[in-house]
Amino acid sequence: MFGSDDIIRKRLLIDGDGIGDDKRVSTLMKTFMKWCNTPGSEEESSATYQRMLAQLAQCEHAMEKTQLIHNMNTHEINNYEQLYTDIEQSIEDAHTKIGDCKQELQHAKRVRKNRQEYDALAKVIQQHPDRQQTMRRLEELQKELKTLKDSREGLEAKMEMRQKQFHVLVTSIHELQAMLEDEKDDDEEEQMDTGSST
Questions:
Q1: What CA–CA distance (Å, rounded) separates 65 from 81?
Q2: Which of 49, 68, 136, 138 could serve as 122's disulfide partner, Cβ 3.0–4.6 Å?
Q3: C-beta separation of 17 from 23 below 8 A
Q4: pLDDT tens by residue, the chain, 198 residues
């Protein structure tokens, strides 16, 4: 495995003066070596020294800029992870609500079955005396049955809406997972570039 110094040397050998940050570092190194090994007047030495300070400031600025970008990317990744956690919680809540809706629908179906049995029994009762009272009871049962039908239709519509919401949430999860993977890949590549440039 190569150390960080070996990687820097290898990049300088392959890339020559380099570009961007590498070029600034390479220029600073050459200027420094020349300043150390070449005798000159105090004025020339001072001018070279000031130029090296300016070059060093540029390198430090580039490093600070890279660090800020890295911090920003890290912050964005944390935001995406929090969003991912929130969506996971929303999906769990949606599962719970869908389960509740299914239970309500099953209950409505049982009630409907009971009402149908009551309706059949009411038809039998109609054949006996006190028809007027029986008819009133039948009308009440029919109203209750209509109410149950309306309730069932509402529950079915509610469950269908929950299923659609769940589908949208699952699709969003897959998209966010892909985005997080891309962000992490980009961050790793940037960290490798930053490490190699230092």
A1: 24
A2: 138
A3: yes
A4: 445 555 544 544 444 443 466 777 777 777 777 777 777 677 777 777 788 788 888 888 888 888 888 889 888 888 888 988 888 898 888 888 888 888 888 888 888 888 888 778 777 766 665 667 778 888 888 898 888 888 888 888 888 888 888 888 888 888 888 888 877 776 677 777 666 655
Q: How far is CA 19 from CA 10, 11, 26, in A?
A: 15, 11, 9
16 sits in the region (left: phi over 0; alpha: psi -120 to 50; else beta) called left
Q: Are 90 and 169 in contact (CB under 8 A)?
A: yes
Reduced to 3 states (helix: H, G, I; strand: E, B; else coil), residue 16 is coil
Cα 170 from chain centre? 11
Among 79, 87, 97, 112, which Cα is nearest to 168's? 87
Given a contact cutoff of 8 angstroms between Cβ atoms, the answer to whether 4 and 195 are in contact is: yes
Q: In the chain, count of helices (H) and strands (E)?
A: 4, 0
What is the amino acid identity at position 94? A
Amino acid identity, residue 179? M
